[in-house]
Write a structure and sequence with these properties.
Blueprint: E1 4-10, E2 14-19, E3 24-27, H1 42-64, E4 68-80, E5 89-101, H2 104-118, H3 120-127, E6 131-139
Parallel strand pairs: 5-6
Antiparallel strand pairs: 1-2, 2-3, 4-5
C-alpha cells in the first residue's frame, strides 16, 4: 500500500503532498478559484505523471537496445471535457523528442510499448475515457 500525506502550508489552497520517501510536490488551485500559483494543479499533475511514467519506460527500453540517448524531452497537451463536473481529460497529445544516435524504428517501438503496454498512467487515463495520441521525433 502506498501512503501520501498532504498538508496545507500556504494560503487557503496551497498544499504540499509528501510520499513515503520524503519527496514533496506543491499543489494549488487556479487564481480564478482562490489559489495563489503556489503549485501545480491536480489535473496538470496527471499529465506530468503520464510524461514521467512514459519517459521512464522509453529510456529504459532504448537503453536495453543499446541506443545512445543524449537528450530526452516530452510535450504533453490535454483538453478536458467542457460543461461537465467533474471535467475529465478528453484528448491528450504527447510528443516524444529523443536526441542522439537512436534508430527511428526503435524509438517509435519504445514509445508504442510504453503507451500501449507498460505505462500505468496512460492505462488509467484511458480507463477514464481519455483518448491519447502521440508522435515521435528523433533528433541527431
Amino acid at each position: 500500500m502506498i501512503t501520501i500525506e498532504l498538508e496545507r502550508v500556504h494560503g487557503d489552497y496551497g498544499f504540499e503532498a509528501k510520499d513515503a520517501n520524503g519527496h514533496v510536490v506543491r499543489i494549488d488551485t487556479s487564481p480564478e478559484t482562490g489559489g495563489e500559483n503556489f503549485g501545480a494543479r491536480p489535473m496538470q499533475m496527471l499529465l506530468m505523471g503520464l510524461a514521467g511514467c512514459s519517459g521512464i519506460d522509453v529510456i529504459s527500453i532504448l537503453k536495453k537496445q543499446r541506443q545512445e540517448v543524449k537528450g530526452y524531452r516530452m510535450v504533453v497537451k490535454g483538453e478536458r471535457e467542457s460543461g461537465k463536473e467533474p471535467s475529465l481529460w478528453k484528448d491528450i497529445w504527447v510528443e516524444f523528442h529523443i536526441y542522439g544516435d537512436v534508430s527511428e524504428d526503435k524509438a517509435y517501438r519504445a514509445a508504442e510499448l510504453s503507451m500501449d503496454k507498460y505505462c500505468s498512467v496512460a492505462a488509467t487515463l484511458r480507463a477514464a475515457g481519455a483518448k491519447i495520441m502521440w508522435t515521435v521525433q528523433v533528433h541527431p
